[in-house]
Amino acid sequence: xxxxxxxxxxxxxxxxxxxxxxxxxxxxxxxxxxxxxxxxxxxxxxxxxxxxxxxxxxxxxxxxxxxxxxxxxxxxxxxxxxxxxxxxxxxxxxxxxxxxxxxxxxxxxxxxxxxxxxxxxxxxxxxxxxxxxxxxxxxxxxxxxxxxxxxxxxxxxxxxxxxxxxxxxxxxxxxxxxxxxxxxxxxxxxxxxxxxxxxxxxxxxxxxxxxxxxxxxxxxxxxxxxxxxxxxxxxxxxxxxxxxxxxxxxxxxxxxxxxxxxxx
Length: 264
Description:
- The protein has helices at about 10-20, 45, 75-85, 100-110, 125-140, 165-175, 235-245, 255-260, and strands at about 1-5, 25-30, 55-60, 70, 90-95, 115-120, 145-155, 185, 200-205, 210-220, 220-230, 255.
- β2 (about 25-30), α2 (about 45) and β3 form a beta-alpha-beta unit.
- Strands 3-2-1-4-5-6-12 form a seven-stranded parallel beta sheet, with helices on both faces. The chain has a five-stranded mixed beta sheet with strand order 8-9-7-10-11, covered by helices on one side.
- It is elongated, with a radius of gyration of 20 Å.
- It has two domains: about 1-120 and about 235-260, NAD(P)-binding Rossmann-like Domain (Rossmann fold), CATH 3.40.50.720; about 125-230, Dihydrodipicolinate Reductase, domain 2, CATH 3.30.360.
- The protein is of the alpha/beta class.
């Protein structure tokens, strides 16, 4: 399998490449922005590659001599490279979040000519959390339990709330029979009593927190907390590599981590 990593010299990109190399995967290209100090360098100049001499270079553009792309960059960067990949029928793994509705629609269209895995979170644990949240919400939401989401991330994260929090909201809406319009993003001022249909979605940005998500389901005299904490970015990197292995050779279409992990 020949792998390209968008943002290959970033925090996530480095770990994806390092873990891929340990598995003996050929890194055919690592894409970086103009001005990056590694542009033009060989993968073997930056990473320990062992005896495999087939690895490529750091480039500004996606090359066609690759089987699959892993991308945790930005919505604009992802759309640019995804369009290129779809023209060449290159498989794609999207870990980027913060897409607009128009971009989401375009991704759906591009999946007609490419095999794409897209997920708000690549970790196994979070995808299990999605399942559990939907199930528990279906049980306690109709019983009048208040449901809230709190997510914590590092102070460099640009989008808010996180893609994972948005996916948890989807699970609650589906499970409890609520509406997306019921979501309340942060609270300030004298708002009166909490409306029963509300779903609070709160974002914390501080320090170097990798990622933490908690769903609260609170009733009279008790509450349930469903929490996932990421201890390392490796959990996302490994999940993305697993997704890349899954999607290569698959029919064109839009897949998610439930497909990858066999949770459907």
